[in-house]
């Protein structure tokens, strides 16, 4: 009888751990060994927190393509793109993000993309806005960096 109880408890604990593990894989809390997924998750977390410096730290060298809610900026040098992103993010209070798909571009091992759902309020308003963020990612010297940002209304 004691053995059955111990086995039952063990099974319940394992089931609870499995459920908690499955819940932990949702949103941006998931831990992964995939470097591209990890980079996209770090950018998403920084974006949600309004951490403009942390987002800018993930920009690729060279030119960055920005499309912020219909405003198209041609491919900008990294520093200029960082300033534009900083100004954009400062217009919002910190929000929440949920990771969507993160994958390699078909036929490439050096290009990828990430889709993020972002909910935040504009500074000075009470209405929560939901936006979809697409990140273009490329591998540079073993790191995945952002070379394109599209924010869709």
Helix share bin = 25-40%
Number of domains: 2
Radius of gyration: 19 Å
Class from helix and strand fractions: alpha+beta
CATH class of the largest domain: Alpha Beta
CA-based shape: globular
Q: How many angstroms does the end-to-end distance come to? A: 61 Å
> Taking all residues together, what is the mean pLDDT?
82
CATH topology value of the largest domain: Nuclear Transport Factor 2, Chain: A
Q: Can you walk through the features of this model?
A:
37% of the residues lie in helices and 37% in strands. The chain is of the alpha+beta class. It has two domains: 1-27; 31-152, Roll (Nuclear Transport Factor 2, Chain: A). It has a six-stranded mixed β-sheet with strand order 2-1-6-5-4-3, covered by helices on one side.
Which short descriptors sum up this protein?
153 residues; 2 domains; six-stranded mixed sheet; 6 strands
Task: Quickly describe the structure.
The chain has four helices and six strands, in the order αααββαββββ. A hairpin with a 6-residue loop joins strand 4 and strand 5. With 153 residues, the protein is of the alpha+beta class.
């Amino acid at each position: 009888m004691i053995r059955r109880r111990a086995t039952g408890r063990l099974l319940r604990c394992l089931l609870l751990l499995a459920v908690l593990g499955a819940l932990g894989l949702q949103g941006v809390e998931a831990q992964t060994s995939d470097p591209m997924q990890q980079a996209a998750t770090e950018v998403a977390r920084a974006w949600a927190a309004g951490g403009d410096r942390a987002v800018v730290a993930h920009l690729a060298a060279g030119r960055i393509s920005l499309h912020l809610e219909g405003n198209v900026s041609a491919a900008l040098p990294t520093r200029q793109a960082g300033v534009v992103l900083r100004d954009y993010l400062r217009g919002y209070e910190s929000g929440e993000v949920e990771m969507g798909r993160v994958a390699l571009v078909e036929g490439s091992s050096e290009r990828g993309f990430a889709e993020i759902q972002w909910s935040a309020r504009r500074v000075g308003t009470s209405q929560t806005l939901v936006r979809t963020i697409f990140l273009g990612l490329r591998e540079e010297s073993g790191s995945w960096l952002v070379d394109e940002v599209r924010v869709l209304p």
